[in-house]
Specification:
This protein is an alpha/beta fold. It has 2 domains: 17-249, 2-Layer Sandwich (Beta-Lactamase); 276-512, Alpha-Beta Barrel (TIM Barrel). Helix content is 44%, strand content 22%. It has 16 helices and 19 strands. It has helices at residues 4-68, 76-87, 174-177, 226-230, 237-248, 253-274, 315-321, 324-345, 357-360, 365-375, 396-408, 425-431, 440-445, 450-465, 478-486, 503-519; strands spanning 92-99, 104-107, 126-127, 133-138, 145-152, 156-163, 180-186, 191-195, 206-212, 218-225, 277-286, 292-302, 308-309, 350-355, 383-387, 412-418, 435-438, 469-472, 491-492. An 8-stranded mixed barrel has the order 11-12-14-15-16-17-18-19, surrounded by 4 helices. Helix 1 (4-68) packs antiparallel against helix 5 and helix 1 (4-68) packs across helix 14. The chain is globular. This is cyclic-guanylate-specific phosphodiesterase. It is a multi-pass membrane protein.
Length: 529
């Protein structure tokens, strides 16, 4: 009887421990799933807002170009030139010359005036951060449009009429598509467009995610049925609960958890000390010919046991713990040493590497980069700094000064993740970079979504206006290559040519491509998957 009591107490303790961890696991897992859902939906809301901002950027740039060419008049020659301009830019439906009070003087396509239900006065238009730019809703038969007004002098202004395509908002995951609504509106509540599969069926218990533009009076809202949201992306719940039950069997779990929290950072430090972080090389190629013109280096962690740790498992921790700077210099130095013979023999070949905004703005960044590149005996113009947009460039003026200094020394600068990151197109121009990199998000949908094609065309057109080159990321099919070429993109990277490769395999790929190019006539050059 006495021996049964300790066993009973131990069993009770184990059961209590399991119950406590099960409860904690339920709370933590539910919160984690909800946070992940909120983060994902917040990103989708941001995508809709960025797409809308790009459309306004595009309209404003078009109006600036027309004004700069002296076409803000109603004479027939000017109107003909404006019509040609509108024809070449599919997102713009019409351009109108208006008085200072907003009343219409003339229109490139005067017949579109017949479709207006009404026209707002200037006092009802909404101001942007740019005081010369105002936005308003144009109510038309068959659907509303967005008016973008740009002041031209004191007495008149140009207005671009942008069609609001509902397909721009068709971004929801398949599981939520029939249970959600995506809305674009002005800050005064005037709705510009929406996507909802069944407009006649209201959402019973909507949960709302909203985001407002800091540059324009635009607001995007995603509403989702709470019931559908509760069952979306919850696959992790039961595995997490199983882990919680298992942890309930272990004593001293708090101590082991605290050690694990310290462990990853210590692992990073040991990896840096041992030189375990290696560059992998992904080709950047000419979309028309397939010729490899450069590469981007990407971090991989090669442990002593031969296992390879993918970047998503250590880059966020390296950034948050401050180890990313030492890791970047270690990887760049090794990549320059590996590629040194090729960089010396091919002066047009370029190597690019990623830098987070905090590192770019850190003290001594330019000086350290120069010393690393000089020590490698490589030309600065063959090195491109890719500024990633996971974090926003809070001090744009300081960042622009760093970019100018880099360019003065011969380095090139690219902005990564354009279209889904933090920078609007006007900020890109202020930053003064050489290149923009179109995010894989757009490449994935360019062959199936007409709105993506429009956005990529706008990016290319504005990049040319800013005298920047364009590189598309994440290319996987020949159909994507053809679609990108038709939009005016000339360079890209992606698994179509190669995944990120260790240097030996990348060097073999360069040698193979060189041999193929030497054996084939120039006219027969093709993209080799």
């Amino acid at each position: 009887m006495t021996s049964a009591r300790p066993k009973f107490a131990m069993a009770a303790l184990v059961l209590a421990s399991m119950a406590a961890f099960a409860l904690a696991g339920h709370i933590a897992t539910t919160r984690f799933i909800q946070d992940q859902q909120a983060h994902h939906l917040d990103e989708l809301t941001e995508v809709v807002l960025r797409r809308s901002e790009f459309a306004v950027d595009f309209a404003a740039a078009s109006l600036d170009e027309l004004a700069g060419r002296g076409l803000a008049t109603c004479d027939p020659a000017s109107l003909q030139a404006i019509r040609l301009h509108v024809y070449q830019r599919s997102a713009v439906k019409d351009v109108r010359l208006v008085n200072s009070d907003g009343s219409v003087i003339c229109s490139a396509y005067s017949e579109t005036l017949e479709f207006d239900k009404g026209w707002v006065e200037r006092g009802d238009m909404l101001a942007s951060r740019d005081s010369r730019l105002m936005l308003f809703r144009v109510e038309q038969f068959g659907g509303d449009a967005l008016g973008v007004l740009r002041d031209i002098g004191k007495n008149k202004a140009l207005v671009a009429i942008l069609g609001v395509n509902a397909s721009l908002f068709d971004i929801m995951p398949a599981e939520l598509r029939a249970h959600s609504e995506v809305v674009l509106a002005l800050n005064n509540g005037a709705q510009l467009g929406e996507f909802i599969l069944d407009a006649g069926k209201p959402l019973p218990q909507p949960v709302e995610f909203a985001k407002s533009s800091t540059r324009y009076p635009l607001r995007t809202v995603i509403r989702i049925d709470r019931t559908a949201l509760s069952t979306w992306n919850n696959e992790a719940y039961w595995p997490a609960m199983a882990v919680a039950f298992a942890l309930g069997l272990l004593f001293g779990v708090l101590l082991s958890r605290s050690r694990r929290m310290e462990g990853p950072v210590a692992d990073l430090d040991r990896g840096l000390a041992r030189g375990e972080f290696m560059p992998f090389f992904q080709p950047i190629f000419d979309l028309g010919t397939g010729r490899i013109k450069g590469c981007e280096i990407l971090a991989r962690w090669l442990r002593e046991d031969g296992s390879v740790v993918p970047p998503m498992n250590f880059i966020p921790l390296a950034e948050s713990s401050g180890r990313i700077e030492a890791m970047t210099w270690q990887i760049l130095g090794r990549a320059l040493a590996d590629l040194h013979p090729h960089l010396r023999s091919d002066k047009e070949f370029k190597l690019s590497f990623n830098v987070v905004p905090k590192h770019l703005l850190s003290a001594g960044f330019v000086e350290t980069l120069r010393s690393v590149v000089t020590a490698a005996k490589v030309s600065a113009r063959q090195v491109m700094v890719e500024v990633t947009e996971r974090d926003e460039l809070d001090d744009l003026g300081r960042a622009a000064a760093v970019v100018r200094e880099l360019r003065d020394y011969g380095f090139r600068v690219a902005i990564d993740d354009v279209g889904v990151g933090h920078s609007g197109l006007s900020r890109l121009k202020e930053l003064g970079a050489n290149t923009i990199k179109i995010d894989k998000f757009f490449v994935d949908t360019i062959t199936v979504d007409a709105s993506t094609t429009t956005i990529v065309e706008m990016l290319v057109a504005l990049a040319r206006d800013f005298q920047m080159t364009v590189v598309a990321e994440g290319i996987e099919t020949h159909e994507q290559v053809r679609a990108l070429i038709s939009c005016g993109v000339e360079e890209g990277q992606g698994y179509l040519v190669a995944a990120p490769l260790p240097f030996a395999r990348f060097n073999a790929l360069l040698a193979s491509r060189a041999a193929t190019a030497a054996a084939a006539p120039v006219d027969d050059a093709v993209l080799v998957a």
